[in-house]
């Protein structure tokens, strides 16, 4: 079995162990589903506030999973094994990001549909919202890989991690909210696809470089 497959399966199992992957999903659903109850039935207000809310909730849900992504590997010695592995560290980092997207990003994408319905999004826009969330969560994770690697050796580095990655989360949030509100959908989806591809390509490379520096 390839190093990618081994790492992917291990990370997926660790994320679901003890229901750990359910916490960010529960946060996302709670944040998006409770707002209509708090704001009342005003459709105009919900349509205006809904798209940014969905994206902010998705970004914070992903952010909550990043702090321990490489920190646990550093503490239990798994990072040393990764560095000694014949497989490129970039490939192992990519496998960890892919597992995180399957365990967290994909469920948030699927949960985005009922969340959008609760926030009075038009039915014909739901497919676009799901597609944008799939791309946006991939972009979040790509950026997050680098931030998680940089802060892996920092105790309680959650604040530092947030300071590093949240500014880089802004483009997917802006263009994702644009898709959800029905403004310039094709152009916004194209930019989101670019963000996702850029994150998938550059995130593992930056993460591997940061991890090698910390191992020296």
How would you describe what is shown here?
The longest helix is centred in the C-terminal third of the chain and has 31 residues, at 185-215. 44% of the residues are buried. Helix content is 84%, strand content 0%. It has one domain (3-215). It is built from 9 helices and no strands.
Total domains, how many? 1
**Biggest sheet descriptor:** none
Distance between the termini: 29 Å
Order of helices and strands: HHHHHHHHH
Number of H/I helices? 9
Envelope shape:
elongated
Q: Over all CA atoms, what is the radius of gyration?
A: 18 Å
Residue share in β-strands: under 5%
Low-confidence segments: none
Percent helix, as a range, is over 70%
Structural class: mainly alpha
The overall pLDDT, averaged over residues, is 88
Compute the number of strand runs: 0
Pfam family, one: CcmB
Subcellular location: Cell inner membrane
Family: Belongs to the CcmB/CycW/HelB family.
Function: Required for the export of heme to the periplasm for the biogenesis of c-type cytochromes.
């Amino acid at each position: 079995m390839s190093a990618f497959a081994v790492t992917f399966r291990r990370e997926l199992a660790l994320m679901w162990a003890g229901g750990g992957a359910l916490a960010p999903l529960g946060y996302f659903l709670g944040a998006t589903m409770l707002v209509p109850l708090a704001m009342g039935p005003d459709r105009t207000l919900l349509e205006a506030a809904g798209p940014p809310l969905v994206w902010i909730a998705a970004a914070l849900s992903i952010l909550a999973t990043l702090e321990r992504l490489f920190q646990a590997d550093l503490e239990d010695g798994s990072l040393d094994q990764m560095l000694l592995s014949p497989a490129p560290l970039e490939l192992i980092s990519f496998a960890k990001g892919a597992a995180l997207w399957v365990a967290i990003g994909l469920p948030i994408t699927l949960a985005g549909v009922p969340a959008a319905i609760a926030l009075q999004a038009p039915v014909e826009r739901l497919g676009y919202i799901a597609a944008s969330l799939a791309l946006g969560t991939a972009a979040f994770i790509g950026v997050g890989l680098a931030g998680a690697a940089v802060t892996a050796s920092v105790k309680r580095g959650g604040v530092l991690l947030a300071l590093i990655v949240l500014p880089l989360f802004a483009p997917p949030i802006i263009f994702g909210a644009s898709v959800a509100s029905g403004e310039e959908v094709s152009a916004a989806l194209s930019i989101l696809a670019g963000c996702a591809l850029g994150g998938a390509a550059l995130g593992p490379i930056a993460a591997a470089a940061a991890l090698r520096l910390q191992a020296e």
